[in-house]
Amino acid sequence: MDVKSRNYLLMNRQALENDIKTSYIMDHMIADEVLTLQEEERVKQQNTQKERAAMLINIILTKDNNSYRSFYNALLHEGYRDLAALLQDGIPAVSSGNRKSSMDGMTSYVKTILCEGGVPQRPVVFVTRPKLVDAIKKKLYCLGSDPGWVTVYGMAGCGKTVLTAEALRDPQLLEDYFPGGVHWISVGKQDKAGLLIKLQNLCSRLEHESTLSQRPPLNIEEAKDRLRLLMLRKYPRSLLVLDDIWDSWVLKAFDNQCQVLITSRDRSVTDAVAGIKYEVHVESGLAHEKGLEILSLFVNMKISELPEQANCLVRECKGSPLVISLIGALLRDFPSRWEYYLRQLQNKQFKRIRKSSSYDYEALDEAMSISVEQLDDNYKDYYKDLSVLPKDVKVPTKVLCILWDMETEEVEDILQEFVNKSLLFCDRNGKSFHYYLHDLQLDFLTEKNRNQLQDSTVRENFQEFLSLNGHLLGRQPFPDIIQLGLCQPETSEVYQQAKLHAQRETGTFYLEWINKKSLKNLYRLVVRPHRDAVYHACFSKDRQRIASCGADKTLQVFKAESGERLLEINAHDDEILCCAFSADGEFVATCSSDKKVKVWNSRTGQCRCVYEEHSEQVNCCQFNNKSGQYLLATCSSDTFIKIWDLNKKYCRNTMIGHENSVNHCRFSPDDEYVASCSTDGTVKLWEARSGNELKSIEIKDFFKNADEQSDDVEVLVKCCSWSRNGNMLLVVAKNKLLLFDISTCGLLTQVIVSHHSTIQYCDFCPGDELVAVALSHCSVELWNIKSLSKVAYCRGHMSWVHCVTFSPDGSLFLTSSDDQTIRIWETKKVCKSSDAVLKSELDVVFHNGEVMILAIYNQKNLQLINGNTDNVIMQTAAQESPISCCCLSEDLKFAAFGQENGTIKVLQLSDGKVLKSWEAYRTSVQHCRFTPDCQTLISSAHDSVIQVWNWQLSECVFLRGHKEAIKDFRLLEDSKLLSWSFDGTVKVWNVTTGNPEKDFACHGGAVLSCAVSPDGSKFSSASADKTAKIWSFESSSALHELKGHEACVRCCTFSPNNKLLATGDDKGEIRIWDVLTGALLHSCSPVTVDEGEPTHGGWVTDLSFSPDNKMLVSSGGYLKWWNVTTGESLQTFYTNGTNLKSIHVSPNFKVYVTVDNLGILYVLQKF
């Protein structure tokens, strides 16, 4: 060591010994390889703090100049700036002979440059993040020799300082680009006086070898000039690093045509200075493995030796390097506190996570709140409002426009301020912005404002709105947020604010759902964790987590309360068919079409074991019910059930006995037995320990007719569920629930749940009275198995429901579906509901400003509903056969309906009395309509004959001529009727005589729709052959054949001015044609969008023009309104369900009526 350096150490020894704590200083010196572990141990063996400091100084005195520099830099880093100042003038000069390489490839010359420049040394615990380090170096290369700025920005604690320092440890970078050295200054939040002190110290450091001693600069301008001269003359081609910049005005003091790198939480901080600018964004999240590596280094253990709490701690730290390092440093000092710190993080007790001396913040909450406190006062309240944002959902600007009652541009300006300061994150989706908070920021913000949140109705309403609609925000086309808000209950603040926005926005098309009061949201949360169908989902035993799997081959684990994703694993090579938690929640098992069974750690996502003994797809897996022993039952299409012990590599038992695919298996509550269900029509009971078959129940016996043999009946037994006491077994097959006594295998009871759909899944509520069944027609039903009565009907899913599962306490149940969503329902809330379920076949009359709707209610009743008030004016008694179609007379005196048994009835609307009944068909009636005089009813069924029934005279005329079933018909003027059929023909009839007057051979495929022009001269036909045609009633040949659709053309309609024809197909495409020339004018929607979803949610089923010919409304998966001139979408109304068969539009184009596949009625009025 130089004599000068040695003297400075000896001269200031007493001050050093009195003040320093050696532990963290030695960590830095060990990292710099100037102190050995043996020397550290010698220091630690001393009894007092002062003796330890004295021993450390004695050791340093025996070493070289690098030890002095390392000691000086450690003092700076640990906050002993006054002591470091005492040693500053003793820092040894760098000699050119000091360039020999050290062990890690960095020359001692470069080490000295960094040390003299004040560049922080590596933290005691350091893990590499090479991509980000390389990104910083690339931006520095881009500066070249030109003056400019590189901004490294990111949220608090993301590692900006450490990464920047690491980038500067590249010898090549320093020697080629910054041979003048690196000058690092930690700035932080400063006032002008503080900044002047920083500048004075920097100038003093840069002048310390000068022979002429200068007085310190007296003001910032003088300091700026002196710094400029020093950088240009004494340190050309050097890099100035400004760490932790908060305010843009600070940078003006360093704006002197040199090369500057800054770290900041504020991306926009360089807006106030001139020059070339580059940015590097430091993302906030560390990978799970990196987090574990940090903890392992802090506590000096191998990753494999870390306690189980380590995984949970890393997950609760949300990938933040700052938080993980804070926790790691604390655990090094208190190695028994793993559970304690985990609990504080989980309970959001950030204040209790106190600092170690290596970190800059008194507690974790201070580290996260300091950025918020620096916001202008008028911004702070807006930032607090962001606590309404849900986790794992990116929220568009419009949501906050409604919350704050502001224009889009105003909101984007506020949010950009937060984004710039790394308090919020933003994704751009086309023209719109989507915002989200880091999980840790959201946890902190929610906890910080908990008391205010509980008192805020507005925030509660918005949180509920986002929890139930967040899954829609990823849909295509993107939903209009104001329109979604208008669908909320009128008492909701979301609705009130959306209404104000809708009233203010001129030129935008909005709809009021005027009968929405009758609809209740029965689910508490909707999540969309998968990108394809969700086949299975289940609760953990503590009800805190949900695991799900599906066609996208992933396993997801998320919080049951919030939907926050905890784990995502690309688990299999093919669709995952089932997943199951172990009894203690430690593991999740998955089974797949790839024939494999896998078991995962439910906290870390690590694969525990893989079983590959099944030879076909594995359909179901379930753990035993008791903690302590991990047994897993699986069943497969290879006809076998297997039981695995997780502590063994191979199968423990294989159960052989089924003759076809085994679809489902379940342990009994006491784990003594396993029940299995098979496509062979049987349910078998097995002894779990031995694998022996105990009993077999022939389920197909309960489906055969008297004259059938069992072998002639095919029954696929879908699933089973045990009662809580294990005495009963519930079995599902086709449309029946069957309850068996386990001891006798006798049938206790059976219920036919539905005549129109099959049961996909069932589950016993832990109370043993309620049973939930998932149905193929998108709904879930709850049944009381004792009274054999349906308790509730749950609507919400838009496609097949694959799974329904109760929580362990029965208070909640979840459902998963082909529509990619999982819905969580409250059992009590569902059981108290009594929503009406309507069929999609309805008739509407718009009369004197009123909307009168005739609808089929719960299959067998007819209701007359006032659409303006949602009041039921009349309801018939339940009919003996389900009602299949209905119609109203124009004078609203009569109604008629057809039934599935072929009967047609006419009733009087005033009292619901049936006036006439006619057994018209042997098959279900498909359509019925009154003639204008209301005396005649025209009908069709699943056959080729149309019946014209004068119900008052009891006379009937039969229209025979079509060779296949009638698709539909339409009344023309002068007692004429237009009909079209699956035989490809269209006919014109005289309904008085029953004779066909004209016959058009229109298409090679079925005619699916016809429309008549308003002037009555033409009609159009749309067909399954993917074409539409325009015809004149006066000619047997088509005027125009309209080609270009890529799927069945399902509907068509003329514009009121007779000039345009719109057609819609089964791929969701709508085309607008010129009637005169047959030319295509517009395609109203592209055929596909992201992820290959149809833009119209499937078929386009109905179309209607506005009276001024400028707008078009269409139905399909949802409702859409279009600009006819441009073909652009004006509005999309997402119904709760899908598959809208038709839309009824008022003459003034202001009221729209439809029913979705969930049986929900929509009466919409233009805003």
Short account of what is shown:
The protein is α+β, with helices and mostly antiparallel strands and 1167 residues long.
Give the helix/strand layout:
Elements: H1 3-11, H2 13-19, H3 22-31, H4 37-44, H5 49-61, H6 65-77, H7 81-88, H8 108-116, H9 130-143, E1 148-153, H10 160-167, H11 171-177, E2 182-188, H12 192-206, H13 220-234, E3 239-245, H14 248-251, E4 259-264, E5 276-281, H15 288-299, H16 309-316, H17 321-333, H18 338-346, H19 364-373, H20 377-385, E6 395-396, H21 397-404, H22 408-420, E7 425-429, E8 432-436, H23 439-448, H24 450-455, H25 457-469, H26 481-486, H27 493-504, E9 511-513, E10 523-527, E11 534-539, E12 545-550, E13 554-559, E14 565-570, E15 576-581, E16 587-592, E17 597-601, E18 607-611, E19 618-623, E20 631-636, E21 641-645, E22 651-655, E23 662-667, E24 673-678, E25 682-687, E26 693-698, E27 717-722, E28 728-733, E29 736-741, E30 747-752, E31 759-764, E32 770-775, E33 780-784, E34 789-794, E35 801-806, E36 812-817, E37 822-826, H28 827-832, E38 838-847, E39 850-857, E40 861-866, E41 871-875, E42 883-888, E43 894-899, E44 903-908, E45 914-919, E46 925-930, E47 936-941, E48 946-950, E49 955-959, E50 966-971, E51 976-981, E52 985-990, ...
Parallel strand pairs: 1-4, 1-5, 2-3, 3-4
Antiparallel strand pairs: 6-8, 7-8, 9-68, 10-37, 11-12, 12-13, 13-14, 15-16, 16-17, 17-18, 19-20, 20-21, 21-22, 23-24, 24-25, 25-26, 27-28, 28-29, 29-30, 31-32, 32-33, 33-34, 35-36, 36-37, 38-39, 39-40, 40-41, 42-43, 43-44, 44-45, 46-47, 47-48, 48-49, 50-51, 51-52, 52-53, 54-55, 55-56, 56-57, 58-59, ...
Helix pairs in contact: 2-5, 3-4, 3-6, 4-5, 6-7, 6-8, 9-10, 12-13, 15-16, 15-17, 16-18, 21-22, 21-27
Domain CARD: 1-90
WD repeats: 527-568, 569-610, 611-654, 655-696, 794-826, 918-950, 959-999, 1000-1041, 1042-1083
Protein name: Apoptotic peptidase activating factor 1
